[in-house]
Amino acid sequence: MSLNINLNDIYIFHYVSELKSITAASKKMNTSKQTISRKLAQLEESLGVTLVARNTRSFKLTQAGQEYYKSCMQIIEQVEQANAMVQKHQTCMEGRIVLCMPFEMNNKRTCEIFMNFMNENPSIKLDISLCDKNVFSVADGYDLVFRLGELEDSSLIARSLGGIGYGLVANPQYLHKFGVPANCDELVKHTYINVTKKSGVNEKDIPFEKCRQLVVNEYMLAKHFSAQGFGLVRMPLFMCADELLNGSLTVLPITGCMEVKPLNIVFMKDKFMPTYMRLFVDYLVDVCREQKPWNVDTTPYIFNNKPKNILHLVSEEIVA
Question: What is the pTM of this model?
């Protein structure tokens, strides 16, 4: 028996026991059910006892599990009290936060959000890097990392920032000239602007590979090509909000091309978070809850084929 147990394992067991559900614990911790189950099994193996008697219909702590849960509650309470005691000594909102965010967030709206925070907190410095989301790692020296998609790593804590809405866009004049694709099969007739750092639906399900293609490695460049009438591009809709408003781009409601991808800000569980950093995280969460700055798909502009009224606004229910 090897007692290879850390505080993360104790937290996982605590939440599973408290909520009496692996599914509920996975939602609470923003972690997959598979990760929770695996960590729980590893904890039981390290202790050499069964903590949870579970099957597909029921969940119940064993006698050993009940005793261990009581001890874990005391440990967690002591940790939280120690954290609160230490944080009382840190009253200065001054420091440097190293951020890593995906290319999808490279937009003036993102800049506005960060600038507003820095104007309100002039002693807090932000050090921002754009990185390919597939190689994000807090271990690379970042304090906070923005991640797109579902999270699997149980060593991280995630705070939800809503999501980023994606859609297929094109210039209305281009569509009048080359026709409006009604489904995925008709996309082969069009020019597709392929962004190499793309995310979302599986490209194998959409015949973009058969299209005439222009390949770029950045969404803003792809947007400019599309707005000039060169072809179609699938991209985050908030990045082309101005173009949707002025009519130089419109959204094609093709099934499989529209999606909202979860966006989270993550940090290490066991890494102490200074007060000024927690202030920044809480600020982002509040802004995203109130404004949903990176998701405009609830009010998308859909092409409607009228020459003098290219765009019209539809509700999220109609799109769904």
Answer: 0.60
